Amino acid sequence: MLGLFYILLCWLVGTLLSRLTGGYVSGNIIGMILLFAALCLRWVKAETVRPAARFLLGSMALFFVPYGVGLIESYRVILDNLWAIVVSGIVSTVAVLYVAGRTYQSLNRKQLHKDE
Fold first, then answer.
1. 77-107: pLDDT as tens digits
2. By the 8 A CB rule, do 15 and 27 touch?
3. Cβ distance 35 to 6 under 8 Å?
4. What per-residue string of b and e applies to 85-97 under the rule 16 or more CB within 10 Å gives b?
5. How far is CA 31 from CA 16, 25, 85, in A?
6. Residue 35 CB neighbours (<10 A)
C-alpha cells in the first residue's frame, strides 16, 4: 500500500508542478521523472513500489478502454482524414529513423576517433 502512495504522491506533485509552470510538460511525465529520481537516490526503495507497479502494469489494458471507445465513436472523422493520418505516420516514422540513425553514426564516429 505504501508503494501506491509513493506513486500517487509523485503523480500529484508532478501535476502540481505542471500547473504551476503553465502546463508545458504533462504532470504525468514530471511525476514519472520524480519517481525515477526518488528511486535512483534511494529515497524510495524499489521493493516498496514493485507490488503496486506490477498491479498497475498488469491492468494497463483496462486504462486504454476509454481511448478505444473514443476511437470507435469518432470513426467517421478518422475515415475522413485517413490519408493524412497514414501519410503523417509514415513521414514522421521515416524522419525519426533518419535522425536517430544519423545521430548514432555521428556519435559512433566521434567515439571511434576518441578511442584512437
1. 989 999 999 999 999 999 999 999 999 999 8
2. yes
3. yes
4. eeeeeeeeeeeee
5. 10, 10, 30
6. 21
C-alpha cell read off for 75? 470513426
Q: How far is CA 56 from the centre of its chain?
A: 15
For 105, the grid coordinates are 553514426
Compute the C-alpha angle 111/113/114, nearest 5°: 60
Residue with cell 537516490: 41
DSSP output for the chain: -HHHHHHHHHHHHHHHHHHHTTSSS-HHHHHHHHHHHHHHTTSS-HHHHHHHHHHHHHTHHHHTHHHHHHHHHTHHHHHHTHHHHHHHHHHHHHHHHHHHHHHHHHHHHHHHHHH-
Total count of residues recorded for the chain: 116
Which of these, 6, 4, 75, lies nearest to 38 by C-alpha position? 6
- CA proximity to 55, closest of 65, 63, 66, 44: 63
Q: What is the pLDDT of residues 39-72, one digit of tens each?
A: 999 999 999 999 999 998 898 888 888 888 888 8
